[in-house]
Amino acid sequence: MLKIAAAAAGAVSLVLVPTAPANAETDTPNAMVVQIPETPDDPAPILSQSELELDPDFQAYLQQEQQYQQTVQTAPTVTSPDSGGAGRVSARSTNPVETRHDGVGALYFTAVAYSYRSCTANYIGGKFWLTADHCVKLAPWAPGFIQQSDGQFAGIENIYRINQPNVDLALIKVGSGISATPFSLSTRTPTISDTLKLVGYSGINNTNTPQDFSSSSTLDYQYHIPSITFVDGSVFNDLSSFTATDYPTCKGDSGGAYFSAGTMFGVHTGQGVVVSQNTIYNCTNWSMMTNLTPYIPWIQNIMATQSQSNIGEIARAFTGGVGANLPFRNAGYAPNIGYIGS
Questions:
Q1: Of 25-29, 157-161, 238-242, 250-254, the least confident
Q2: Most buried pick, 2, 58, 126, 152, via CB within 10 A?
Q3: What is the pLDDT of residues 52-76, one digit of tens each?
Q4: In a 3-state reduction of DSSP, which class is residue 230?
């Protein structure tokens, strides 16, 4: 059940209490407080507990979700692409020209009177979307939603962070609302001569301003990176290095799939930075992807065991989905991840 109560001055406290025990894979307690800064134009919480209990829309949504989850896919599709460049992509798309992909969505978190975009997420079947862990780690229990380029959206029910250190992968479970074609997951990591495509909700070049649509980059595989340290001190393991052959990756692309012919190899973790005259340019041709292949068993386990949702998760998705009808605020992105050395 979702409870919303007064918190310290200048903040709103959202407390989500699932009716089932916490999942060990998420390493989260049964109740956790998320502090969301309040600004003068954030007059009140989105929905109170009493409003949810009396809201006929929520009751209808609850019934809809309880029926929906009985038929959802509970395992990802896993494929074995040919090695040695069989997955080459020849198209060179333009940027900032819009590129739509129904398996790619924008990840939003809902504050009180507005929603802000964080990263990119990718549909892998059933209720689940794959993104980067650094996109969700600061507020894994905040309400939010994923929205496609056609306007369809689904509220976030739960977020699952991998229980291995320094692996930039996370799963997001959502309610109904989006019709999408799932990516299959590659059983091999990229190799020399592989060219992959990325579709993401990036920002305008070298600014903190989000674009209103998704665009694409085409990237050539370079080499494997066992471990790397980024500007903010974060360490990430098991990356693949790519060079963009047309347009660079930017803020907001984080979590976006690197894929070919519908098969996903990993998610965008970050890009190199160039420092010139005391200015950091965050959109560069050198990009890094977290490989998903070693973690397919983790994905399979979460989908097999967590596809059924309790009422607390459904309430969270309903509340987060309300944010899709709130004004979108240009709050910028989470701090950019840029290379500082290994």
A1: 25-29
A2: 2
A3: 778 888 889 999 999 998 888 999 9
A4: strand
Question: Which of 187, 196, 193, 197 has its CA nearest to residue 100?
Answer: 197
Integer CA distances (angstroms), 114 to 7, 35, 44, 324, in order: 19, 15, 11, 9
Helix (H, G, I), strand (E, B) or coil at 163: coil
Q: Report pLDDT digits (tens) over 272-301.
A: 544 333 333 455 556 788 999 999 999 999
3 state SS of 49:
helix
Global pTM reads 0.74
The fold for domain 49-81+95-329 equals Thrombin, subunit H (2.40.10)
CA atoms within 13 A on the CB side of 23: 19
Nearest to 313 by CA among 9, 20, 54, 14: 20
* Residue with the larger pLDDT of the pair 257 and 322: 257
Cα dihedral 312/139/160/243 (nearest 10) = 150
How many CB atoms lie under 10 A from the CB of residue 180? 20
User: Would you say 200 and 118 are in contact if contact means Cβ atoms under 8 Å apart?
Assistant: no
3-state SS record for 164-212: CCCCCCEEEEECCCCCCCCCEEECCCCCCCCEEEEEECCECCCCCCECC
> How far apart are the two ends of the chain, measured CA to CA in Å?
44
